[in-house]
């Protein structure tokens, strides 16, 4: 019996070693690490670990043990949280929605700015734990009350559930600002990646709510703002750059929006939408809206092919403004509050920020824009990762703090 157990253990070790070697070796053929990120070796190691988690997650999913997103979130949430003695952290719920409240420990009578933070992760990754360090430092350094929202995610909860959860939690918060010592004239919504997209959707939804305190500002950090065009210059340039490369985007994108991943090639050719749709939104999505200097790393315009009607029926959810807030009508976007946008050069979603920035500026919305020339998608989450910390993450946090203090 023990011989059989040893055989199984040896087979297990060989299989695990094989998976690890495959992931490591594939990195050198499929992943491009720009030297300009400052710490290319560190980024390669970080992405290698991340890809290993994705691979094991897919294996467990095939074996029906758990889904890939659940496995990665489980591993990401394992490290114990580090608590700052100057920040009071409280866990509670708005109805069924878990939230974390961060308050500066030093008690004062003065009301403080309030920040509602929505974490990123494509509806699959990220949690209140993965963004604890960001929210804690944001609270302390900006002397603000921060509310982090733990919205429901994949695999059980798809679009638009995360957005509805965030909207509900935000309304709860806005109705109880007095209880948290928050100045109703200085409430900010903030998010990274998908969370950045959620932040601006929340702003758009609340522009016509006179019964609630008006949102003072929105902060969008390498935000996901449109899902129509996945052949923008930044998507072409960064398709093989961590942490959001094309293969991972194609893994999460269909899951979140609940359509078949078999339409990947159709979407790449632009055949998932009819010509009239492309024509309607060209004024906001066209590459001519992106400064030429952002096309120098390589860009080839790809004219959309004739529409695949079957794909359009399934993928047309991308036209929902809750999925693509960048295409909301002018009468909504023009009412948005002062905005701070942070974009990263080596990010597939970079051009979402550039296109939204132009729309807001054209409509007269006060705008602050900061571009991280050495940044990549997800870099802010490395702010408390010790060895895997990238200086760019600290610079992004400093931008946020400076913006909030200036309100």
UniProtKB/TrEMBL annotation:
InterPro entries given in the database record: AB_hydrolase_3, AB_hydrolase_fold, Arylacetamide_deacetylase, GDXG_lipolytic_enzyme
UniProt keyword list: Hydrolase
Active site: 193, 347, 377
Listed GO MF terms: carboxylic ester hydrolase activity
Occurrences of domain Alpha/beta hydrolase fold-3 (ranges): 115-242, 311-380
Membrane-spanning intervals of the chain: none
UniProt keyword annotation of Ion transport present: no
Signal peptide segment: none
Entry GO CC: membrane
Family statement: Belongs to the 'GDXG' lipolytic enzyme family.
Protein name: Arylacetamide deacetylase like 3
């Amino acid at each position: 019996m023990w011989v059989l157990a040893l055989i199984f253990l040896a087979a297990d070790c060989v299989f695990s070693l094989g998976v690890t070697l495959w992931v490591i070796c594939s990195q050198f053929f499929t992943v491009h690490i720009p030297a300009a990120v400052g710490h290319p070796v560190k980024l390669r190691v970080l992405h290698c670990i991340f890809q290993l988690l994705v691979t094991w997650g897919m294996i467990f999913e095939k074996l029906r043990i758990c889904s890939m997103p659940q496995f990665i979130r489980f591993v990401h949430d394992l490290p114990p949280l580090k608590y700052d003695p100057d920040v009071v952290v409280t866990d509670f719920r708005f109805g069924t929605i878990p939230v974390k409240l961060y308050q500066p420990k030093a008690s004062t009578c003065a009301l403080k700015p309030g920040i509602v933070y929505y974490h990123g992760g494509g509806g699959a990754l990220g949690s209140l734990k993965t963004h604890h360090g960001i929210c804690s430092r944001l609270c302390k350094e900006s002397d603000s009350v921060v509310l982090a929202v733990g919205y429901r995610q994949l695999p059980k909860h798809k679009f638009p559930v995360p957005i509805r959860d965030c909207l509900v939690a935000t309304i709860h918060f806005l109705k109880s600002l007095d209880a948290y010592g928050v100045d109703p004239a200085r409430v900010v919504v903030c998010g990274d990646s998908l969370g950045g997209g959620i932040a601006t959707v929340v702003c758009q939804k609340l522009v016509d709510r006179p019964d609630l305190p008006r949102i003072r500002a929105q902060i969008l950090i390498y935000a996901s703002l449109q899902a129509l065009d996945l052949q923008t210059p930044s998507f072409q340039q960064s398709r093989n750059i961590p942490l959001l490369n094309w293969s991972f985007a194609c893994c999460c994108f269909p899951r979140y929006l609940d359509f078949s991943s078999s339409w990947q090639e159709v979407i790449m050719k632009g055949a998932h939408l009819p010509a009239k749709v492309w024509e309607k939104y060209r004024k906001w999505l066209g590459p001519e809206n992106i400064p030429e200097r952002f096309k120098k790393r390589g860009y080839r315009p790809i004219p959309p092919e004739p529409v695949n009607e079957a794909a359009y029926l399934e993928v047309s959810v991308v036209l929902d403004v809750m999925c693509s807030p960048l295409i909301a009508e002018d009468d909504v976007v023009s009412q948005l509050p002062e905005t701070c946008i942070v974009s990263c050069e080596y990010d597939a979603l970079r051009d979402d920020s550039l296109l939204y920035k132009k729309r807001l500026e054209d409509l007269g919305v006060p705008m602050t824009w900061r571009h991280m020339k050495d940044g990549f998608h997800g870099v802010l989450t490395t702010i408390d990762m010790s060895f895997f910390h990238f200086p760019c993450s600290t610079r992004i946090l400093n931008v946020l703090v400076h913006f909030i203090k200036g309100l």
